Structure formats: C-alpha cells, structure tokens
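Suppose a colleague, Dr. K., hands you the sequence of a protein chain of 205 amino acids and asks what its three-dimensional shape might be. Before reaching for any lab equipment, you can write down a predicted structure in token form. Begin with the sequence itself:
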Amino acid sequence: MNLQAVKTRLPLWGGIVLLPILALGLYHDKQRHTPTTPIHPVAPAVAAPVIKPPLIRNQLPPAVSHNASPEPTNRVTGLEPEAAREAVFRKENNVYEKATGLFEAEPIDVEWASGYEQSLREMFASHTGLTRVSVNTISCRTSMCRIEVFTPRDIDADYFTAMFYNALDNFREGTLKAEASIARRMQQGVTSVYIARKGHTLGFY
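The predicted structure, expressed as tokens, is then:
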C-alpha cells in the first residue's frame, strides 16, 4: 500500500469521527445557559360560595300566609264548600220529605198500580244499565209511582238517574214515558224517582 495515500486519508476519517462529538458538546453547553421556567403546581378549582338570601323573621310562605283563606269560597252561593254542601243537603231533604208525604198520603188504585208496578219491574230487568242498580222498592198509588234505590255516593245517584231516563225513553217504544222527578236523601244514600200517571203532575217541586 502507498504510504502517501494513508497519510492523506487520516485527516478525513478523523474529521468524520469528531463532528458528532463537537455537536454533542455544543448542545450540552446551550442547555446550561438556557434559563428554565419553574413549574408551579395547579391549585384545585374552588366552587364559588352559594349566597343565600337573608332570613326574615316571622316570614311565612304564601301557602300558610295568615291572609290566605283555608278553603275557596263558592263563587255562585258565596258560601264555604262545607256550608254550601249543607245547604244542598237541606234543600234535597226538604224535597224528599215533601215528596214522601204526598206519595204516602195517596190511596192506592189497585188495578192501575199493580199493572204499572209490573211494567216498571220488567223495565228494570230488561235494561242493562238498571240491572246494576240496587233497588229498594217499586210502588204505585193513584197518581204516581215511586222507585227507591240505594245510592251511597253522588256518582251512584247520577248513574241511576241517567240509566232510568234512558230506559223510560226506550222501553216498549216509550210507552211508560211520563213526567218524572228525582228526590234524594244523600246523607242516607237513598234516591227516589217519582213517575206521574198520565194526565197527572208531580206537585212536590
């Protein structure tokens, strides 16, 4: 091998080895002179305090205000609900007692009464709505008949009244249809319906 060729290659080879070393040294020197920013811990988020309105002594909510009436007043009668209900009961009882007195004071027309009573029983037996009604008595006198049923609740009385008038209109094509009125004694759970004989009227209203 030529000795001159070896001498010319050595500087090139040495430079290639020294370049990475010099670059690494420059990097470390720069890192030493670069100021570092301290890292501060992040404080946990604190919820904003809830500010409550000041408490006013003797302050009452609207529902229990001293000015609020305990029960609404009936706009039609001007009475409290309980007083209005008592007034309705008194009115119904007066009508009921008057109708009962007039009915029981009448003599009995046996021929007419027995035939009409039988027709009314057949009407109750054939009408689907009336079969659910608890009947107390069906009786006739001279100018009217009375049917008494048990109606423990207002809804029972309303149901019976609707079914009765429907049956009266439709049974035997309305042959039993006549003037009829209702008398209630709701405190005892009783409703009476009175039917006038044709050519007669009911006089208790």
